[in-house]
DNA sequence: CTCTGTGCAAAGACTTTGCAAAGTA
DNA sequence: TACTTTGCAAAGTCTTTGCACAGAG
């Protein structure tokens, strides 16, 4: 944890940015909620617990800065809110997501999965792949169990 | 073209919706710009040429309706605007996109590519895949040619 | 006549920007 | 001092909603 903060601090410094208390608090929230795909608002509320005087604009600015530095990835599951996801240590590619259309849960897949597909795209379409976004929509394990007996009709948008 | 309008008309009727002139104009714009990934605003401006009296709200409502009927897919390339993409005839899966980070162009891939990956997700994670979104970010063919000699530094956000 | 659909304007949600004040090297 | 960062409030952008009116069956 401290080690990852240090690393981010160095990344900031290397571009002449500072790791201010507000930025550090923001990064800590992201580290403590790595699995959660927080929206800017979510981050703001959590950061406020550590640093009550922080402004929402600062959180937005910090998240944007971290995006530029590729410390976090900005993602969008189609609900009109940007979400922010910390890059894993040493991750070479952007991880994938499984969004459950029943309960809205979001799981992550770290495995690459796309290696072959990417070379196919490069060879067949002449497109030089730099990054990707892959999201599966479907029914998660626990909702499958429930749906066997129940006749749920709850759905999520998009 | 007329045949596809007819089909959509039937789909609407089957759910007790009508294909009003405004809705038809909207569908026609989508059909005529199938490759273009139009935003709601784009669609609005184009529909206005055919039906100047239409309101922006109607376009939004129509696009949402068409999304629900799965006539169009709502996508988001991370620029804060929803874009709308007509489903291809008989398409069983959502097609993929190649977004060029130099020039912003968006190309489509109709090939499935993910069949194997999906079964892997189903088997290994117990997640029942219903749909997917796959977007590659990178450099398109024509930008690659240019960048060989030029030292372009133009970038697109996210 | 009844119910659906429309246009307009207003409201809403999310995000960005301007600016003076505060902090840092 | 010179430069970066912050908080607040205001403005911006995209989208949805409320409502009276028009239209189809």
TrEMBL record, chains A, B:
UniProt protein name: Transcriptional repressor
Keyword Nucleus (UniProt): no
GO terms of molecular function: DNA-binding transcription factor activity; transcription cis-regulatory region binding; zinc ion binding
Binding site for Fe cation: 132
A biological process from GO: regulation of secondary metabolite biosynthetic process
InterPro entries: FUR, Fur_C, WH-like_DNA-bd_sf, WH_DNA-bd_sf
Family affiliation: Belongs to the Fur family.
Positions annotated to bind Zn(2+): 100, 103, 140, 143
Record-linked CDD domains: Fur_like (cd07153)
Keyword Amino-acid biosynthesis: no
Cofactors required: Mn(2+); Fe(2+); Zn(2+)
Cofactor annotation comment: Binds 1 Mn(2+) or Fe(2+) ion per subunit. Binds 1 zinc ion per subunit.
One Pfam family of this chain: FUR
Gene3D superfamilies the record matches: 3.30.1490.190, Winged helix-like DNA-binding domain superfamily/Winged helix DNA-binding domain
Sorted UniProt keywords: DNA-binding, Iron, Metal-binding, Repressor, Transcription, Transcription regulation, Zinc
């Amino acid at each position: 944890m401290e080690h990852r903060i240090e690393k981010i601090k160095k990344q900031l410094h290397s571009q002449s940015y500072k790791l201010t208390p507000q930025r550090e608090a923001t990064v800590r929230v992201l580290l403590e909620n790595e699995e959660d795909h927080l929206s800017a608002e979510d981050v703001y509320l959590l950061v406020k617990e550590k640093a009550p005087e922080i402004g929402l604009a600062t959180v937005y600015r910090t998240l944007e800065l971290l995006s530029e530095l590729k410390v976090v990835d900005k993602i969008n599951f189609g609900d009109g809110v940007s979400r922010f996801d910390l890059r894993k240590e040493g991750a070479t590619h952007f991880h994938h997501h499984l969004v459950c259309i029943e309960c809205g849960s979001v799981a992550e897949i770290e495995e690459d999965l796309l290696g072959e597909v990417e070379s196919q795209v490069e060879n067949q379409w002449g497109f030089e792949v730099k990054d990707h976004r892959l999201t599966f929509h479907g029914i998660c394990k626990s909702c499958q169990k429930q749906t066997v007996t129940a006749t749920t009709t709850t759905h999520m948008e998009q």
